[in-house]
Specification:
By secondary structure, this protein is mostly helical. It contains 5 helices and 2 strands.
Length: 127
């Protein structure tokens, strides 16, 4: 996790978002233990209650579960659930703005595909 915090959003929420990113990126898989509240608090110099609040949001969302005496663990299907929600959020919130920018700049499908292909070649990626 990145130790830099954004002043525009509560730290517990940023912590929650970082764990979500770790799940989406496959760093944390189904059944994996989250770093302990105590360890995260010590490593990032946070109040343990702040860490616990961020983790509790993940529990409330059904992404992780508490196992008394053992810690918190990623629930089965958490990544799938997150992907579905993130994709829908992108389509509802971000895509309309992206599409408006594409239209405003007069870009077409060919321009976008060419840009993607040149980035893949530059990055050494293959589709």
């Amino acid at each position: 996790m990145n130790p830099k915090w954004d002043e525009d959003q509560p730290i517990y929420r940023q912590l929650r978002d970082r764990v979500v990113a770790m799940i989406l990126e496959g760093v944390l898989a189904d059944g994996d233990a989250l770093p302990s509240v105590r360890n995260v608090a010590a490593e990032y110099r946070l109040n343990p209650l702040t860490v616990l609040k961020g983790y509790q949001e993940l529990v409330d969302e059904g992404l992780v579960e508490k196992k008394r005496g053992l810690g918190m663990f990623v629930n089965e299907g958490a990544r799938t659930k997150l992907l579905k929600a993130e994709r829908q959020r992108f389509l509802d919130k971000e895509w309309p703005r992206v599409l408006a920018t594409i239209d405003r700049l007069g870009l077409n499908e060919s321009d976008l595909l060419q840009s993607r292909e040149s980035k893949n070649v530059a990055g050494g990626e293959n589709d």
